[in-house]
Structures are given as structure tokens and as C-alpha cells.
Write a structure and sequence with these properties.
By secondary structure, the chain is of the alpha/beta class. It has a 5-stranded parallel β-sheet, sandwiched between helices. Strands 6-7-8-9 form a 4-stranded antiparallel β-sheet, with helices on one face. Helix 4 packs parallel to helix 8.
Length: 226
């Protein structure tokens, strides 16, 4: 089955370059030259992934990401010419799953997109089982998370991190180890990304978030706190 992507990039040559690489890998590509067009297309289409440039006319990538996250947990990869850590943290706080800086390699971008989709679809290391921690339930076969029977919408990265926390309960691991395991060894962002995602997990899980906090305190004392 073909995957589909919404590519949002104001540079027409860059957009065409990236599109060609995705099409070579059998992706369906929908293109948008600015944020407003992207949101209009997102309302009309059903896409598996959004690749989103940050610096654009009409509406910037931050605003588009925020609007998409208000109604969808579709995986989002943000691309930008800026490499500052604060920009990357902003993207993750808004719900982005990956962050790629320019100049970028379209081949690497496609590879990251494919890996992200495999994690999202649960085709990497998926187990047909339900993990139960108090009122928190994680169904790895259906790829769903519930608290007291109520569905909780997590981004792909938040879901991966939650599984990692549960799997390694009771162990003492450094931020760097968690970052490498969940984000990958080629991730170039700040280690504080781990803290940001843990904070968002606690908020989304509500009362069950206290369980995650307990897991972290009892088994995830970061190096800076030891």
C-alpha cells in the first residue's frame, strides 16, 4: 500500500527535488507552497505524513504544526535552515516528531520518513499484547493507549517513549541513552527533548501521569540528577 505525504515548502526547486525522491520510493506526494494552502489541503486529504518547512510566507511552519496538532496526530517532520537548539525544542513542544536542518539530503529525508512511518504503524518490534499499569493500558497490536478506558491521543514519538519507559522500568539510564534508543543515533538535537516529551506525556495521561513520574523518579534518574 502506498503511503502519502503532504510536502509544505515555499522553495519550488527544493519542493520539486524532494518530491522526486519520495516518488521514486513509491510515495504519493501532495505539494503546498505555503502554510495556508497546506491547511486547506490537509482538510481535504488523508495523508500519512507531513513534511513541513518552518520559514514560509502567509503562515509559518510553527503555526501550521500547531493547527494540525489541534485535530490530528499525523507524523510531522519539520525542516528549516536554522539549527539552533531552541528552534528544535519549539518544534518538539508543538508536536513535531522529527527535525531536519538544511542543507538536507532528500535521500536521508526519505529514509527518516520511512523509519518514522514504520514506528508509527507498529511494524518495528511490534508485540501482540496489552501492557497494563494501573489505569494505563497500552495495546501494542492496535497501537492504542487508554487511561481508565478513555483513548489518549499520543504522537508517534510520545508513544515510542511511553513504551520505552514501561519496558525499562526500574533501570537507571542517562538522557543520552534514552535519546539514542527512541530518537536514533543520528539525531542531532538537544538532550532536553527527552524532558520535553516526558512532560507532555504526563500532561496527556492526566492522573495516570503520576505513574510515569514515579517510573522516572524510581528508574530514570538522569545523569545530571544522580
Amino acid at each position: 500500500m502506498k503511503r502519502s505525504i503532504l510536502l509544505v515548502e515555499d522553495d519550488s526547486l527544493m519542493r520539486e527535488f524532494i518530491t522526486d525522491y519520495f516518488k521514486k520510493e513509491q510515495w504519493d506526494v501532495h505539494e503546498a507552497e505555503n502554510g495556508r494552502v497546506a491547511l486547506d489541503l490537509f482538510e481535504q486529504l488523508s495523508v500519512d505524513l507531513v513534511v513541513l518547512d518552518i520559514m514560509m510566507p502567509e503562515m509559518d511552519g510553527w503555526s501550521v504544526c500547531r493547527r494540525i496538532r489541534e485535530k490530528s496526530d499525523v507524523p510531522i517532520i519539520m525542516i528549516t535552515a536554522r539549527s539552533e537548539d531552541e528552534d528544535q525544542l519549539m518544534g518538539f513542544e508543538l508536536g513535531a516528531d522529527e527535525y531536519v536542518t538544511k542543507p538536507l539530503s532528500p535521500r536521508v529525508l526519505v529514509a527518516r520518513a520511512t523509519a518514522l512511518m514504520k514506528r508509527t504503524e507498529g511494524t518495528v518490534g511490534r508485540e501482540a499484547e496489552t501492557l497494563l499499569y494501573g489505569e494505563l493500558s497500552v495495546n501494542r497490536e492496535a497501537h492504542t493507549v487508554t487511561v481508565a478506558g478513555q483513548l489518549v491521543n499520543l504522537s508517534p514519538k510520545e508513544y515510542d517513549l511511553l513504551l520505552f519507559l514501561i519496558k525499562h522500568y526500574g533501570k537507571v539510564l542517562a538522557r543520552e541513552y534514552i535519546l539514542n534508543a527512541v530518537w536514533g543515533y543520528d539525531y542531532l538535537g538537544d538532550e532536553r527533548t527527552v524532558d520535553t516529551h516526558i512532560k507532555k506525556l504526563r500532561a496527556k495521561l492526566g492522573d495516570a501521569g503520576r505513574l510515569i513520574a514515579t517510573v522516572i523518579r524510581s528508574g530514570y534518574k538522569f545523569e545530571s540528577e544522580a
